[in-house]
């Protein structure tokens, strides 16, 4: 493209015969040079502006691409986080349900075991009460027969017989108590062995002490002098008022004689 300076400095050779009017040509070139200079300058300005706009468009395009990539990355991260949260929630729910089922089964088994122990304790208690009642009736009948056989016996001799009969009743009651407690202890140990619980060898010292207390009730090895000394101290309340108190009996794991 010609510049305005090249147009204005353009020179033509003079023709020998019939050429253009030199003055008109120069005048036209002057006008053309001015217009062309304006157009050239405007074209340069437009080119510079277009370059700036192109740079801006490229910048916007790069920014748009970066934003689009960032948006896609954020979307993928959000989807991943939601998926992981859903998976974690499902795992926690499954674990909680499993633990709840196991706990429920354990409680049901424990409840059934306690019901079985309670039923066994009630059965042993009923048997023990029946034996004690039968023993009491037999001893009462025996005392009545003694009073009928020797009505004229001395008062001291009759009192000795009554005391001896009472001691026999006490010995029989203690023997029945020891037998009932041994049966209950054996039943509890068998139940604990079935459930996988520790047996009597691994029980606390308090339970072993309770078991050792039953070994002290031996009516055969007791001496008469010791019986007279401990008669008033160890006499149960049943002999004092004529009735047997079963309110202190305990069942299950806490079964012991007080």
Overview of the structural elements:
The chain is mainly alpha-helical and 258 residues long. It has a domain at 106-254. Helices cover 76% and strands 0% of the residues. Helix 2 packs antiparallel against helix 3 (155-195). The radius of gyration is 60 Å and the shape is rod-shaped. It starts with a helix and ends in a 17-residue tail after the last helix.
List keywords for this structure.
mainly alpha, 258 residues, 0% strand
The largest pleated sheet is described as: none
Tally of alpha and pi helices: 6
Distance between the termini: 127 Å
- In angstroms, what is the radius of gyration? 60 Å
* Percent in helix: over 70%
Question: What is the structure about, briefly put?
Answer:
The protein is mainly alpha-helical and 258 residues long. It is 76% helix and 0% strand.
Q: Layout of helices and strands, plus pairs?
A:
Elements: H1 4-8, H2 22-149, H3 155-195, H4 205-214, H5 224-230, H6 237-241
